[in-house]
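Homework help board

Subject: predicted structure for assignment chain

Our instructor gave us this sequence and asked us to write out the predicted structure in token form, then describe one feature. I got the tokens but I'm not sure how to describe them. Can anyone check?
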Amino acid sequence: MAMPELKAKSASQLMEGVGEQASSALGAAKQYPQRMREFFHDVRLEMKHVTWPSRTDVRGTTIVVVVTVFFFGFYFGILDFFFSHAVDYLLRSFK
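My token output:
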């Protein structure tokens, strides 16, 4: 595979590229406050479209989550108890 030839750039050409990058960075820095203002404006508009749950909905789902966590905690605790005793029994019987 042939390598493309690289053209040697003069110092003035290199400095032009640096100047362009600096001016584009400066332009981006100048636009930052305007872009942030637009962003927060858009956030405010979108937040008006959000439907928030009522207090009773939040209370109901919280109760469901707490009951489910206790149920699965109890269930996995029982399974752990039986499996640990079964493995312990097997290890003692093959000793």
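Reply (TA_rk): Your tokens look well-formed. For the description, you could write something like this. The mean pLDDT is 84. That's the kind of observation they're looking for.
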